[in-house]
Amino acid sequence: MIVQGVSIGDMLNQSMTVLTKPSVQSFEQFERRGGQREALIYVGVAAALAGIVGGVFGLLTGGIGGLIGGLVLGIVGPLLSFFVFSFRVYTIGKSQGGTGTQDEVFYTTSLYTAPILAVTGIVNAIPLLGCLLLPATIVLGIYQLYLGYLATRSSMNLQQNPAIITVVGAIVAMWIAGAILTFILAAVGLGAAAASGALNN
C-alpha cells in the first residue's frame, strides 16, 4: 500500500524486524530509510485505523458525539503523542550528547509505534475486548518502553544511562501534552453540552 508516496508495506516489514529481533542493531539497519514525513504518515495510517474503529463504537454507544470523540481521540491523540515524544527524544538526546538527526529519531520511533498503536488502539476501542485483553495490552506497553529505549540508543547514538534519561524525559513531555489535549477536549465537550442545553431550553 502506498500513501502519499510512502510504502506502508516496506515500513511494516521493517517494523516486523525490530519487533521480533529487538536490538540497537536492528534499528540501525533502518534509521536512514526515511524521515519525519514518512514516520508521520506511517503513524497516521495506524492512528486512522484505530480512530475509525473507535469512531464506529463511539457512534454505537454515544451517537454523533461518540463518533467525533472516538475519531479525535483515536487519531489526533496518538499523532500528538508520537510527535511530542519523538521531538523530545531528539532535543533531550542532544543535551545528553546524542549525535543523531531528527529524521532518524522520528523514523526509528515510528517503526515500533505504528504497529503497536494499530493493535492496542483497535483493541481498546472495543469495550469488551479491551477489558479481556488488558493484561496483554499492559505487557505490550512495557515492551514498547523497551523498544523506545533501543530506538533512542540507535537513532541518537547514546549509551545506556543517557538513553534512559532521554526516554523518561520524553515520556513526561508526552503525558503532559496528553493531559492538555484531554483538558481541551473536555472543555469543548462541556461547552457543547451547555450550548445544546441552552438551545433546547
From TrEMBL:
Entry keyword annotation includes Lipid metabolism: no
Keyword Protease: no
Transmembrane segments: 39-60, 66-85, 132-151, 163-195
Biological source species: Kouleothrix aurantiaca
One Gene Ontology CC term in the entry: membrane
Domain of life of the source: Bacteria
Stretches assigned to the Yip1 domain: 17-177
Keyword annotations of the record: Membrane, Transmembrane, Transmembrane helix
One family name in Pfam for this protein: Yip1
InterPro entries documented for this protein: Yip1_dom
Name of protein: Yip1 domain-containing protein
Membrane topology: Multi-pass membrane protein
Compartments in which it is found: Membrane
